[in-house]
Amino acid sequence: MELALWGGNFNPPGNHHIEIARALARVAERVVIVPAGPRAEKREQNAIASTFRAALVDLAFRDIDRVELDFSDLENQVFTSNDELARRYSDADVWHVVPREFVDGGATEESMIQQYWEQSGDLWKSAKFLIVHPKNHPPSVADLPPNYRLLEVNAEGRSQDIRVALVRGENVSHQIDPAVLNFIETRGLYRLSSPAHSRTISLQGKSGHVYFDKRNVAASDWAQRFNSVSIDRADYVIALGGDGTMLQAIGKFWERRIPFFGVNFGHVGFLLNDREDVSSSSFPSEDVIVRDLPMLRVESLLTDGSTSVGLAFNDAWLERSTGQTAWLEVKVDDQVRFKKLVCDGVLTCTAAGSTAYASSMGATPMLADTEAWMLVGSNVMTPRNWKSAPISMNSSITVRNLDPDKRPVRGFIGGTSLGDVLEMRIRPSRTAFVELAFLPEHDMSRKIADVLFPNT
C-alpha cells in the first residue's frame, strides 16, 4: 500500500490516534495525516488556536516513521473534503483511512461516507478505504464498500471525551502522550479560561541542547559549561551568540516545539538574555518566562513561474535588483493601499523582528509580544514621508512588482534570497510559532530604549 490518507480533527490527539498511526505505518509506505480546518458544524475545532492544534499534532506524531503532516487546512483556515484530498495526492495510490463507524450502514446507503462526504456516491464505489476497527469488532461484511482493507488496532478513545475530561479537570494522563499533555497543561488549553501565550516554567531537572557560534570564542567557552544532549532528547535549546545565532537555531529546531533560551554574546541581543544576568543566577533557572511568538508565512511567485512557500521568524522583504527604483503595488487584506509605491524595497516583520532590519530602515521597534506586525518602506520616494505601518495579526499583505521587466526585485525570507520575484503574499502563520524563554529580569523595553535614545 503506497499512501494511507488520514483526515480528522485530532482535537486533541490521544494515545489511540498514535497507536493507529503506528499501525498505519506498518502497512503503508507513506502515511499522510491532515488535521481538518474549520467547519460551521464543528464548533469545537475553533476552541483553540490553529497554532496550538498544529503543535499538538506535531508532538503526537512527529517521531513515527513514514508519517507526514499536512497542515494546509489549518494554515489556510479551510476544510478540504476527501475527494479534494484524493485529487491533491492523485499521483499516489491513495487509501482513505476511516474508522469502522464511517462504513456502518453501508448496505442501505446510510453510512457516514455515503451520507456526508462530498462526491460520496463516486467515492464509495471507486475509492479505496482502509477501515480501522477495534480488536474483535470488524464491520459487517454487508456494509463494506467495494474496495477496502481492514486494519485491526487495539486502541480505543475519543477526542470529545478527552476534551470533556480536561474541562472538568480530570486526570487524562492515561489517554494522552506526556509531551502533548504537557503542552496542553502549560497553556491551559481546553479550559474555560483563555489559553495563555506566555507562562512561567522551570528548567531545573530538564535537558538542553546547546547551539552556539563556533567562531565566537566566548560563546565556545561557555558552551563547555552545559551538558548538551541531542536535539531529539532536549527539553529546550540553549543558543549562545548574537541574535543571528538565535535565528539560526530557530530555523533549525522550531519544529521541535520546545523553548529557546538565548545567552547574548553579540551586541544588543534583543532575543537573548544578558550574559551577566545568567551568570548571577542559578542555571538552569527555576523561573523562566516563555512567550509564544509568531512566525510569518511567505508565499512567493518567482519570475520563472515557480512558487515558493517559506517561514520567517524575523522578516521577509523585497528590494530592487538593479540601480532603478522599484514600483510596487501593496495590498492589505486584498485592498490596495499603495497603487504605486516608489522605493528601494518593502519589508514585513514580526514584532520580534522589528528590532532588526526594520529598525535600521527607520521603523520604531515594538516589544516582542506586541499583538501586531509591521510593514516598512525602504527609501520611499512616493508617497513622500511614508515609513511604516502596524498591521493586525489577522491581516495579510500582498506586494506585487508593477514593472518586472524593467525594474526587477529580489525576494528574501529571513535573509535568504529567493532570487527575482513577481509577488509575495505574507501573513502570520496559523501553524508555526516559536517559544522564547527569558529570565524574569530580562527587559526588552530597556534595550529598545537604549537604541531609540542613544547616549550623546
From TrEMBL:
Segment forming the signal sequence: none
UniProt key word Transferase: yes
Q: What is its EC number?
A: 2.7.1.23
Which keywords label this protein? Kinase, NAD, NADP, Transferase
Which SUPFAM superfamilies does this UniProt record tie to the protein?
A: NAD kinase/diacylglycerol kinase-like, Nucleotidylyl transferase
Q: Which Pfam families match?
A: CTP_transf_like (PF01467), NAD_kinase (PF01513)
Q: Name one GO molecular function term.
A: ATP binding
Taking every annotated instance into account, which residue ranges of this chain make up the domain Cytidyltransferase-like? Answer: 6-84
Q: Name one GO biological process term.
A: NADP+ biosynthetic process
Does the record bear Kinase in its keywords?
yes
Catalyzed reaction equations: NAD(+) + ATP = ADP + NADP(+) + H(+)
**UniProt-listed PANTHER family:** NAD KINASE
Entry protein name: Putative inorganic polyphosphate/ATP-NAD kinase
Q: Which organism is it from?
A: Rubripirellula tenax
State the encoding gene.
ppnK
